[in-house]
Amino acid sequence: MSFSQFFAANWLLFLLLFIVLAAIAFYEFNNRGKSGQQLSNIAASAFINNGALLLDTRTAAEYKAGHIAGAKHVGADKFADYAQSLNLAKDKPIIVYCQSGLSSRQQANLLTAQGFSNVYQLKSGIDGWKAENLPLV
């Protein structure tokens, strides 16, 4: 069976495949950059050393138990108010992190929606930072 015969016999499957691929591409295109890029720990360290603002969105107790040096604690419940009061250049790098890297996406979305263009999330959050034995204070 040649490809053209296979295609003719299964045209509906090819149509569905095309629709699914188009939907995935559309979704990815529309959501690119909305929640910030994820940074590895090494890349985050380089950004931190170059003056990026580091925001810890965990609870106060988690922050006190150990955080990345230079991080500012802004709990997730107060993040919206804090983000509105930020008086930074819109292109200043901002790294947002939480415990595991999942919930910081909402805060990154909020900053991006307010026009900040260099918003990043720490991939795997503080758990990933600890797993690589990086320092906490």
UniProtKB/TrEMBL annotation:
Top-rank taxon, per record: Bacteria
Keywords of this entry: Membrane, Transferase, Transmembrane, Transmembrane helix
Domain Rhodanese: 48-137
Transmembrane segments: 6-27
PANTHER family associated with the record: FAD-DEPENDENT OXIDOREDUCTASE, PYRIDINE NUCLEOTIDE-DISULPHIDE OXIDOREDUCTASE
Protein name listed in UniProt: Thiosulfate sulfurtransferase
Protein's organism: Suttonella indologenes
Family matches, as PROSITE patterns: RHODANESE_3
SMART domains listed in its UniProt record: RHOD
Recorded GO MF terms: transferase activity
Origin organism lineage: Bacteria, Pseudomonadati, Pseudomonadota, Gammaproteobacteria, Cardiobacteriales
